[in-house]
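Task: sequence design from structure.
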């Protein structure tokens, strides 16, 4: 195998490579076995790993050679050096900011904080599609007790739900209980042969929907509906609320850090305007 042959050659190297195993050297630049192993996708077959290794090594060699050729032709370039320095500075600042956030800012948010953010920013949480709560059951047209199912699916009383739960184990092809959860209407309606383009126009007409085709009955009871363009319910918007509130806290925290550093630098006379 390719990797084994490379390891055999590189183990004879006597230079100090900080514990790494050199595979290839190009004008003093080294590609190490450990770097190649880290780049290997997983899982991968032995044959594919050999092909990947050959391609990876050749790409590395080409990049080193092209970089050296470019450096010899471009020479000293202040603009490039400045870009590199700016990028390095950005990386260092980003790393430091993330460290500060992890140390000083807790991502644990109370329900009161989340609800307050949601209430104060409801315009940010607008539905792009209708949501529903309810119950759906699909049964073969040969299933027994269809008239009972017609009564049970329309009611969310404990007795009706208990009967449906027992019935569905032996008879239902598909069953979904979501009286307690908002879900996109399309998630359920896609299972039904509804002959309309607008889901919302159809489900707005009636909350108890029964459809039959050549093989199945489809029963859908909608206990609650939120239309497209309305506010997202808090329960549905909650994951986005969490992300947005955490981001807001981080921005405010970093603003405070920068302001403190600026004020401290002013007091210590470290900032000197030259105009």
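Answer:
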């Amino acid at each position: 195998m390719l990797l084994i042959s490379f390891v055999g050659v590189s183990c004879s190297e006597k230079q100090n490579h900080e514990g790494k195993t050199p595979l290839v050297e190009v004008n003093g630049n080294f590609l190490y076995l450990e770097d190649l192993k880290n780049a290997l996708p997983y899982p991968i077959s032995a044959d594919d790993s050999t092909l990947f290794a050959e391609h990876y090594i050749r790409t590395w060699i080409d990049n080193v050679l092209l970089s050296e050729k470019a450096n010899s032709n471009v020479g000293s370039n202040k603009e490039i050096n400045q870009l590199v320095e700016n990028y390095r500075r950005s990386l260092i600042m980003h790393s430091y900011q993330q460290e500060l956030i992890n140390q000083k800012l807790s991502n644990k948010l109370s329900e009161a904080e989340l609800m307050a953010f949601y209430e104060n920013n409801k315009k940010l949480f607008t539905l792009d599609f209708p949501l529903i709560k309810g119950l759906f059951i699909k049964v073969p047209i040969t299933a027994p007790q269809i008239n009972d199912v017609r009564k049970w699916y329309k009611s969310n009383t404990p007795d009706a739900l208990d009967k449906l739960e027992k019935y569905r184990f032996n008879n239902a092809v598909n069953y979904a209980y979501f009286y307690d959860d908002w879900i996109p209407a399309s998630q359920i309606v896609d299972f039904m042969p509804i002959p309309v383009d607008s889901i919302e126009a159809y489900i707005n007409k009636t909350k108890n929907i029964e459809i039959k085709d050549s093989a199945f009955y489809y029963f859908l009871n909608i206990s609650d509906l939120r239309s497209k363009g309305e506010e997202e319910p808090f329960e549905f918007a909650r994951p986005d609320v969490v992300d947005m509130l955490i981001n807001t806290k981080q921005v405010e925290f970093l603003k405070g850090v920068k302001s403190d550093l600026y004020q401290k630098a002013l007091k210590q006379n470290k900032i000197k305007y030259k105009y």
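The radius of gyration is 32 Å.
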